[in-house]
Amino acid sequence: MIRLVFLLCCFLCVKNDEPVIAWNDTYKLTWSDFKGEPDIYSSAVATTASGITFGFSIKQTNGRAVSFKTNVNAHFYPKKSWYKPDRANIHVLNHEQLHFNITELFARKFRYRISKIVISKSLKEELQNLHKTINKELAMMQDKYDDETNHSRSIEFQSKWEGYIKLELKKYSKYKSN
């Protein structure tokens, strides 16, 4: 029920030493995706570790930025995600899936904001600052989600959040993960 958000900042390359699950609108998490060791001291039933990876390259001519490319992905980290089998159920799994969906929503918002950037001499700093801003907004949204749903215990608020995130993902569908 409590989630863990990894806010990863990867410039030019992404570490590949830990298996990840990239967000995909046709794949839904299952309990078998949660491979971490449960925290026996936590009151949480499950923890989802997800985050946004980000890389970019800037093409320069005569010392001036002329173009840039970015790579933004929403990932789930199986080895850092866990659950307590004796207390877990489909309702809790749906709550954890929505944490991952929220990560994808912010990856889309990040891509959208990147699409609005105008090339300038401060491009690198602008991209880095935007990444920090998105990660702060993502963390705030994840906390708000857990607070308002009481970590999935409020069926009413859980349902409201599911509807809200579904609409937001649709609104930013042009910027979805491939």
UniProtKB/TrEMBL annotation:
Cited InterPro entries: DUF922 (IPR010321)
Origin species: Seonamhaeicola maritimus
Protein name, per record: DUF922 domain-containing protein
